[in-house]
């Protein structure tokens, strides 16, 4: 029987570490690294059943994809029930998921100190900034996570330092506390092999399409328990009416909970353009110099030339703001460059980007263009087939063949060619997040 066992769980000061043992058929989905997460708050006094949550949140979807059972010594009873609810949602959403059973020697119902704090997963993008505006009266702790869009690799140290600096400045300016979480959750998992096996079933990567709602919220459990957070918010990427196979949705995130904390999928009733409207109202009433950060290529500002930067700049204009005042170098000539890049398929786009451009198109129909260049772009956008823009962005055939080869290779063969596979890994990954 396929199984994954959580083993040797330890907590030393702010560091959580454990290893897993997987049956031979599942070994390829894990690297040789132990699972490790670092918090900026002591967690040694957090019960083991809560300490197990971060690794379970990463491992369980892998187990469910293979019909495997999961074994752990101790688990928080509230989270065990949450996992059952999340499993139901994910298995209904993805027909390649088979499910599996969590077995624990002990389930616990700890009695934490009463708390009244809240937390918000935060990058400074459109979605998380909108959620801050909506919940600013709570002064939520703004939480930034290293391990997904910013990897634990030394190559990403500069990005992480830039994000920490920027989020810390935001927290100081808005009288909030910060929490910084660093994890190797995607180098502990063999994300490249997960892509090789399951990319054909999902629009995007394994973590974006399957794992990140449960995974990112679960990472926060020991920190939230230690800080007394009763509510934890994660900003919605999509909105009501979009039915995509995406790893963070209300029917996933709203189920995630553990003793003392409930999680919330925030802003789902608002489209992305409406979230920009919320931000625009806040800018006009309280903070005229508010800066946004949505660029995945940079963390020390926005490059201004990627699809997400262009999309955000156009959205800001539609909400009545000048992009350059909020972190986006944007001139009239950029409308022509944006159209050309979209037509040429220069960016890898998915169905979520299609919906976001459709949202912009809908708003543009009710907006008087401010310039001839803007008018020309909106007229083009009104007539273009957005599905054609998505199909023009298909990954190369060589990437699809490489995934198929890795998927079908016996484990010893896979291990032999692993370095070559890793060299191609970057080209296979597409991580999309507005948080």
Write a brief structural summary.
With 435 residues, this protein is of the alpha/beta class.
How does this model look, in words?
This protein is α/β, with parallel strands linked by helices and 435 residues long. The chain has two domains: 3-116 and 146-266, no CATH class; 297-346 and 349-391, no CATH class. Helix content is 46%, strand content 16%. It contains 18 helices and eleven strands. The chain has helices at 48-51, 53-65, 77-93, 126-135, 157-173, 185-188, 191-198, 206-219, 221-227, 250-253, 272-285, 307-318, 333-344, 351-364, 372-383, 386-391, 397-408, 411-428, and strands at residues 3-12, 15-22, 35-38, 69-76, 102-108, 117-121, 141-146, 178-183, 229-235, 257-258, 261-266. It has an eleven-stranded mixed beta sheet, sandwiched between helices. Strand 10 and strand 11 form a beta hairpin. Helix 2 (53-65) runs parallel beside helix 3 and helix 2 (53-65) packs antiparallel against helix 8. The longest helix has 18 residues, at 411-428. The protein is globular and about 70 Å long. The protein starts with a strand and ends in a 7-residue tail after the last helix. The relative contact order is 0.12. Mean pLDDT is 90; it is low at 397-422 and 424-434.
């Amino acid at each position: 029987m396929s199984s994954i066992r959580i083993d040797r769980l330890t907590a030393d000061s702010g560091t959580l570490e454990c290893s897993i043992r997987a049956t031979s058929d599942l070994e390829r989905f894990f690297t040789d690294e132990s699972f490790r997460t670092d918090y900026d708050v002591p967690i040694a006094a957090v019960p083991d059943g809560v300490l197990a949550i971060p690794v379970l949140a990463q491992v369980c979807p892998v187990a469910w994809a293979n019909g495997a059972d999961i074994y752990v010594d101790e688990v928080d009873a509230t989270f065990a029930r949450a996992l059952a609810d999340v499993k139901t949602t994910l298995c209904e959403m993805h027909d390649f998921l088979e499910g599996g059973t969590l077995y624990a020697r002990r389930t616990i119902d700890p009695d934490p100190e009463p708390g009244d704090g809240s937390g918000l997963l935060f990058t400074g993008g459109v979605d998380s900034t909108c959620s801050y505006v909506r919940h600013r009266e709570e002064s939520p702790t703004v939480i930034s996570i290293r391990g997904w869009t910013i990897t634990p690799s030394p190559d990403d140290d500069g990005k992480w330092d830039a994000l920490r600096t920027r989020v810390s400045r935001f927290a100081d300016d808005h009288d909030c506390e910060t929490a910084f979480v660093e994890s190797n959750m995607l180098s502990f998992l063999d994300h490249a092999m997960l892509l090789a096996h399951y990319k054909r079933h999902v629009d995007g990567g394994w973590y974006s399409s399957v794992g990140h709602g449960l995974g990112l919220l679960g990472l926060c459990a020991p920190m939230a328990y230690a800080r007394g957070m009763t509510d934890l918010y994660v900003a919605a990427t999509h909105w009501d009416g979009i039915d995509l196979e995406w790893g963070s949705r209300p029917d996933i995130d709203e189920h995630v909970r553990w003793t003392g904390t409930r999680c919330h999928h925030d802003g789902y009733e608002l489209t992305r353009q409406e979230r920009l409207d919320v931000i625009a109202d806040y800018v006009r009433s309280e903070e005229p110099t508010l800066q946004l950060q949505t660029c995945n290529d940079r963390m020390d500002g926005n490059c201004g030339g990627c699809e997400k930067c262009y999309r955000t700049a156009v959205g800001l204009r539609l909400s009545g703001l000048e992009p350059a005042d909020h972190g986006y170098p944007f001139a009239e000539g950029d409308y022509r460059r944006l159209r050309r890049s979209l037509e040429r398929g220069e960016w890898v786009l998915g169905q979520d980007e299609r919906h976001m451009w459709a949202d912009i198109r809908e708003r543009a129909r009710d907006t008087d263009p401010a310039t001839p260049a803007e008018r020309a772009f909106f007229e083009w956008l009104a007539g273009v087939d957005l599905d054609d823009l998505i199909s023009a962005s298909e990954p190369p055939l060589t990437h699809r063949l490489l995934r198929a080869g890795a998927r079908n290779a016996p484990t010893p063969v896979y291990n032999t060619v692993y370095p070559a596979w890793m060299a191609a890994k970057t080209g296979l990954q597409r991580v999309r997040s507005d948080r």
